[in-house]
UniProtKB/TrEMBL annotation:
SUPFAM superfamilies: Cgl1923-like. Gene3D superfamilies: PAC-like subunit. This is Uncharacterized protein.
């Protein structure tokens, strides 16, 4: 479920901070990619919802 999945952006910020503070070298490239995909998907959902709210799309096509 979504409650079990941490916010990838927050996790990335935390790991970056720990890397900086403790001079750690934890690889963050996969996490950056995941966070980017997550943000792109959220952006798409928000845009679709905005179109739905403005009447540009029908409810049955909102999540298509």
């Amino acid at each position: 479920t979504m409650e079990d999945i941490p916010d990838p952006g927050a996790v990335l910020a935390t790991v970056d901070a720990l890397n900086s503070i403790f001079n750690m070298k934890v690889e963050t490239a996969p996490l950056k990619e995941t966070a980017s995909k997550y943000h792109e998907e959220m952006k798409r959902i928000i845009q679709d919802y905005s179109k739905f709210q403005s009447g540009d799309r029908r409810p049955d096509s909102m999540y298509a």
